[in-house]
Amino acid sequence: MDQQNFENHKRNVAGFHYLLSFLLIAGLIGAVVNAVYQFGTGDFFTALLLLLFSATLFLMSWFIRTFPIRAQDRAIRAEEGLRYFILTRQPLSNKLSITQIAALRFAPDDELLPLVEKTLAENMAPTDIKKAIKNWRADHHRV
Length: 143
What we know:
Layout: H1 14-38, H2 44-88, H3 98-104, H4 109-122, H5 126-132
Helix pairs in contact: 1-2, 2-3, 3-5
């Protein structure tokens, strides 16, 4: 497995992120256009059903992606909170957002504490946190 770093840590699955997203959006737009064109005709009910089906598929794909990410965020918060507690015997500050904590998970133990302090002092953005990491700690188990 390739060494993970800031440049290659994002996981994009082309079939899901690009192809499926394009097909769902195109289908939803097509269903809206079809419903508009069928308004006032005998086929309007069928067009509405197609629109309902397209909207349902779009929403399902959205929630199918967001629910595991939320669960992953909870796990990351717990894991990083435990790691910080082991290193400091103090709880991780609740001033850190989940996106900041998720970015901090890539920092090795020796870089974590100074980076947490800097993040709290400067309210660093997740991208800036990741860029500040010198020795990347890979996470190959993300959703």
